[in-house]
Amino acid sequence: MRTSFITQRTYTRSSGLKNTFGDFTCMHCCNFVSADAALSGVHNRNHCPYCLASRHLDLFEAGDRLSACKGAMLPVALTWKRSPKKYARPGDGELMLVHRCRDCGRLSINRIAADDDNALILSLLHAAANLDCQTFDACTSVGIQILGRADTSLVTRCLFGQN
Ligand SMILES: [Zn+2]
Ligand SMILES: [Zn+2]
Q1: How many A from CA of 25 to the centre of ligand 1?
Q2: How far is the CA of 50 from the centre of ligand 2 (A)?
Q3: 150 Cβ neighbours under 8 A, 6+ residues apart
Q4: CA-based nearest residue to 124, from 158, 93, 149
Q5: Which distant-in-sequence residues (6+ apart) come within 8 Å of 72 by Cβ?
Q6: CA of 57 to the centre of ligand 2 (A)
Q7: What's the pLDDT band for 9 if we cut at 50, 70, 90?
């Protein structure tokens, strides 16, 4: 059934990466989510701004929609993606959400959108202390560094503006 996945992948690419997700109804909290980039500030809105849940749709890269899993991906933690620039300063980078698939355990890191619930994002910082060790180990093994309470000032600066 999935023998033609490479062709599909090329097709997705050539059709452009804008709004590959489209509007959707959140499978977790049932809210309607608009993919309008004017609201989210991102072109590939892939999680719900109300509960931050996502869906396991992608297999190789964001937007490919090739995964057969389709499980709920729940936010488990926050991480810091360092700037890939060679001469980046220590604080350069981007705050990211870590999602974990409830069904298969797949981890993914995702950009935070402008209209995401900041209080919920902040709560993930505190939830990190109680993260189950299976998830924690899975993150560590793929190089995802989980942010904790010690990173509060960094995270609040990202969420609520540069001082
Ligand atoms: Zn939701
Ligand atoms: Zn999954």
Answers
A1: 8
A2: 21
A3: none
A4: 149
A5: 27, 28, 53, 54, 55, 56, 101, 102, 103
A6: 8
A7: very low
Adjacent-strand bridge partners of 101? 73
Q: How many domains does the chain have?
A: 1
pLDDT in tens, 96-119: 999 999 999 999 999 999 899 999
Tokens of 111: 């950009």
Rounded to the nearest angstrom, the distance between the alpha carbon of 69 and the centre of ligand 2 is: 5
Q: Which domain holds residue 113?
A: 5-160
Q: How far apart are the first and last CA of the chain?
A: 53
Q: How many A from CA of 92 to the centre of ligand 2?
A: 31
